[in-house]
Design brief:
The structure holds two protein chains of two kinds. Chain A is α/β, with parallel strands linked by helices. Chain A has 15 helices and 27 strands. An eight-stranded mixed sheet of chain A has the order 16-15-14-13-17-20-24-25. A seven-stranded parallel sheet of chain A has the order 3-12-11-8-4-5-6. Chain B contains 13 helices and 14 strands. Chain B is elongated, with a radius of gyration of 24 Å.
Chain lengths: ~500, ~400
């Protein structure tokens, strides 16, 4: 495990709650309103002008957020504007990257971008995995990204915030506008901790852009563009529950587990993402809640129409939303005061004075691999290729009951394995693994095992499940042989290094 | 001339399957080229399985190209064998995959057959998890769901699936093709002991006898356990087949059920197939009566509209009221609605339980007349109640210790 990452000394992981930070919070320089227009008009003609005025220079860190998901055009516009200005060796610090960001490979080849600290998927993941990126990739959770800005591990020079609606003062919101994306939670920290903040919008409205999610008091410049993104790629028109019978079976087991373990009770809370299984379990749980006359106090998104329906039907009092996945979610967050946009600061952050993640009764997550020690991997394929960012996955592990809902194997690739290829989350925080072939409860959770005694669910040991899967796929896979060099490190939620990702040589790209 | 054969599927949508091309000839041994999306994990295992099959088939010189999309071992082996045999190699023993962990016991003649899940015989990815969805039976289909070009490859794939896949509590059925190809299907699958053979488009009792004779011959030749039954389920799919329903049902002792194929039947009549099935009501009633007269089960067709769960439930409830004991499924999500449709209602079950209880009470006290409250219960009513309770017990609807338990075996 490399302990010097891009010139910075690292602390190795010492335990899930071991790291105690010291010192004071990192912060941007003090600014004064005397340097800003008294009429509040912070507009500049274009991104080039904005970056120039921000003092863009070689080696700087440029942050963007991912609420526009695969529809985002702003991150590329900003990096390309920086390239036109002749900048080199930039560190790109996105809250996540998407396939639409593939052209960043060209910017890395040309020396404009030195390396990426953020999720690297698809072509970017492949590029990094093959050792082509000059610096080491750094994979952080959503909470970890906030932590890194707060303790100064990452100093953001310029934050560029894509805003579906803004005014000339910089007040902005994701809830409305032609490119509406719902919450702007992942950009809140960028606004507060960057030296300079640029808001880019395609929906400039007269002051005030109310209600705003980010206050213009943090913002240096406002840029108006024709389009910040492709709305069809920002949110889905309608999210669909999976039709895969195997995934539906897993989802049903998840809902039944929550019921049989007594977690589903009046006033409970849960978090559901937008993955196929996560959407589907909500549908099963909803019927069980209705039948039992039970309602939740709050649910946490990524919101979709399925969570919005719970809110509308009175089955939950609130949605606390980190990001918004479909049009129903966007409409709801813009119109329903019980649907609340939240920040990674209050939800996920190691440097927060507590956070929501640990207050949620149950969370349902995915994984690419889980091992017999209940350790989880979400970052790499079993052949070692970088596959996914961490997102909020690590942060959510602190929930009272963390459930990984996964198929036991995909095609011929076992998901239940002897040892994870990359350690993203320690087994002591992972309580239940639910697959189409059975439900495995972590032996550390005696209380849960006792609670589901007498349940008709197929409860079995994870070793037994692994043996069955190996029987199906033709034995344990050939051991992964990492290349010579690390290409990225995986951070734990507190900023310590929990594992590394190694260079992959030859072979074929994953799907 | 180069002898060439291929099997399997390729293309962007293919998953859990592979494509194999075999060209026999040359003098440099077996040139095996494998590309696989699981190369790092199972590349060596794929090569070993391919070489094992080629070795058993005594292929000494060939060019073999494998394009794998994450297929399981029994699929790899079936595809390599099929491609080699298509290239002209003689079939030989020693090409079979490892057996599933748990062995299937023999299937009782009158077991529950509420739902039978159709699985296309050339699509391995739907097979491996089929049993997890709890159908009473799976049907590995070699007939209509398999393209004519893939019939041979499907036959070997289905054979390997019966052997290597654990279908859980489901009865394993195979739908063979019509005529001579169907008899050749039997040669491939019967040694792996499927529980039921579905015989399509039966119009005459002789068709059933031909199939039964072939099965008998294969079992003799292979030295298979003669006490383990291979049941037959003829499918009636034409007006003529319906007219001969009774003869077909009693053609052979191994017939356990009759079923109907409504797509072909309505086509034969030249009428449209509708949501409530009025056009086939007579044929279905005729089939139920013939089956009952011959002492076999009557099983309904499939309900093809996957998105119409309400229509499916209505169909199932109607079918049960007509005397059918089950129907087909084209997707696992139809299984539960079907099981619920074929379950007796709570009221009917409660009444049947009290009748059976009253019957037991009367028997114990040596009374010739069964009465419930002030009402006398006629023997046929008692009989119907006993059957209903027996069915409900097999469906897991009667709690242990409830009335009727000691007499639950039914007629």
């Amino acid at each position: 495990m490399p302990l010097l990452v891009n010139g910075r000394t690292q602390t190795p992981y010492g335990g899930v709650r071991a790291h105690a930070p010291e010192g004071t919070r990192h912060g941007p320089p003090i600014r004064s309103c005397r340097d800003y227009p008294t009429d509040g008009d912070k507009r500049v003609p274009d991104l080039r002008a904005a970056l120039e005025r921000c003092g863009l220079s070689d080696g700087m860190t440029l942050a963007t957020h991912h609420h526009l998901r695969n529809g985002d055009r702003v991150a590329l516009m900003a990096l390309q504007a920086a390239a036109e200005l002749g900048a080199r060796d930039l560190r790109w610090f996105p809250s996540a990257s998407f396939p639409a960001h593939e052209p960043v490979i060209d910017l890395m080849d040309r020396g404009v971008v030195h390396h990426i600290e953020g999720s690297m998927n698809g072509p970017l993941g492949d590029y990094a995995s093959r050792g082509k990126m000059r610096g080491l990739g750094v994979l952080r959770s959503h909470g970890g990204r906030y932590q890194a800005m707060q303790d100064g591990e990452v100093h953001v020079d310029i934050a560029v915030i894509a805003a579906p609606t803004a005014d000339a003062f910089g007040n902005c919101s994701g809830a409305v506008g032609p490119s509406a994306c719902g919450s702007l939670g992942f950009a809140l920290g960028d606004a507060m901790y960057a030296d300079r903040v640029v808001v880019v919008t395609d929906n400039l409205v007269p002051f005030p852009a109310a209600p705003w999610q980010i206050e213009g008091g943090w913002v240096d410049y406002v840029v108006e563009v024709d389009s910040i993104g492709d709305p069809s790629q920002i949110v889905s028109g309608t999210t669909q529950v999976t039709r895969s019978p195997d995934r539906l079976l897993i989802a049903e087991y998840v809902a039944r587990f929550l019921k049989d373990a007594g977690i589903m009770r009046d006033g409970f809370s849960f978090q559901a993402g937008a993955g196929g299984i996560a959407l589907a379990f909500v549908q099963y749980l909803k019927e069980m809640m209705k039948a039992a006359g039970v309602k939740a106090r709050f649910v946490r998104g990524g919101s979709t129409r399925y969570l919005v329906d719970l809110l509308k039907e009175g089955l939950t009092d609130y949605i606390l939303d980190g990001q918004t996945f479909d049009l129903a979610g966007v409409e709801s967050i813009a119109s329903d005061p019980r649907h609340i946009a939240t920040s990674p600061f209050t939800s996920y952050n190691w440097h927060g004075k507590g956070n929501f993640a640990s207050m949620v009764d149950a969370v349902v997550l995915g994984a690419t691999e889980v091992d017999v020690g209940f350790n989880g991997n979400v970052n790499t394929h079993s052949d070692g290729l970088l596959l996914h960012g961490i997102g909020g996955w690590q942060n959510c592990l602190f929930s009272r009951c963390t459930i990984l809902a996964v198929p036991s194997f995909r095609d011929r690739i076992p998901v239940i394995v002897e040892r994870v290829t990359t350690l993203t989350g320690p087994g002591e925080l992972i309580d239940v693994v639910i697959t189409e072939r059975g439900v495995c409860v972590n032996p550390r959770r005696r209380d849960l095992l006792d609670a589901v005694k007498g349940s008709t669910l197929p409860i079995r040991s994870i070793e037994d499940l692994k043996a069955e899967v190996e029987g199906l796929v033709g034995g344990p896979p050939s051991p992964f042989s990492p290349g010579e060099r690390p290409v990225a490190v995986v951070k734990w939620v507190d900023g310590t290094v929990i594992d590394s990702v190694w260079e992959v040589e030859g072979g074929e790209g994953g799907d | 001339m180069i002898a060439r054969g291929e099997a399997g599927h390729r293309g962007p949508d293919v998953r859990s399957d592979l494509h194999v091309e075999v060209e026999l000839g040359g003098d440099v041994g077996v040139d095996l080229e494998v590309t696989s999306k699981v190369e790092a994990l199972y590349g060596e295992a794929i090569r070993a399985d391919a070489r094992r099959v080629l070795g058993a088939l005594e292929v000494d010189h060939a060019r073999v190209r494998v394009r794998d999309e994450g297929a399981l071992p029994w699929v790899v082996m079936a595809r390599v064998e099929a491609a080699a045999v298509r290239a002209g190699v003689e079939p030989a023993p020693g090409t079979l995959p490892a057996r599933a962990r748990s062995a299937r016991g023999p299937s009782p003649r009158d077991r529950l057959r509420r739902s039978r899940l159709y699985l296309p015989g050339d699509s391995p990815r739907f097979m491996v998890n089929a049993g997890l969805h709890g159908p009473d039976a799976v049907i590995l289909d070699l007939e209509d769901s398999v393209h004519p070009d893939h019939k041979h490859a499907a036959r070997l794939l289905v054979r390997n699936a019966i052997r290597a896949v654990d279908f859980g509590a489901a009865e394993v059925m195979v739908r063979i093709n019509q005529g001579v190809p169907g008899l050749e299907d039997l040669d491939a699958v019967i040694p792996e002991a499927p529980d039921v053979i579905l015989v399509p488009k039966v119009e005459h009792a002789e068709t059933v006898l031909d199939v039964a004779a072939r099965i008998h011959a294969i079992r003799d030749e292979e030295g298979l356990d003669p006490s383990r039954p291979v049941w037959l389920m003829p499918i009636l799919e034409s007006a003529l087949g319906i007219e001969h329903a009774f003869d077909i049902a009693r053609a052979h002792e191994s017939v356990v059920a009759l079923t109907i194929g409504l797509e072909d039947y309505t086509a034969d009549l030249g009428v449209a197939k509708t949501r409530d099935g009025q056009e086939s009501a007579w044929a279905r009633k005729r089939l139920v009566n013939a089956a009952r007269a011959a002492g076999v089960q009557a099983i309904d067709s499939v309900y093809g509209d996957l998105d119409d769960e309400e229509g499916l439930r209505a169909w199932g409830i109607r079918a049960r009221s007509m005397g059918f004991t089950g129907m087909g499924c084209v997707h696992p999500r139809q299984i539960r609605p079907i099981h619920e449709s074929f379950a007796p209602g709570e009221d009917a079950l409660a009444r049947a339980l009290s009748i059976v209880e009253a019957f037991r009470d009367a028997s114990e006290r040596g009374l010739g007349v069964v009465s419930l409250g002030s009402k006398m219960i006629d023997p046929p009513v008692v009989e119907r109640a006993r059957r209903l309770v027996a069915d409900a017990k097999r469906m897991g609807l009667v709690p242990n210790g409830a009335a009727g338990t000691p007499v639950g075996d039914g007629p």
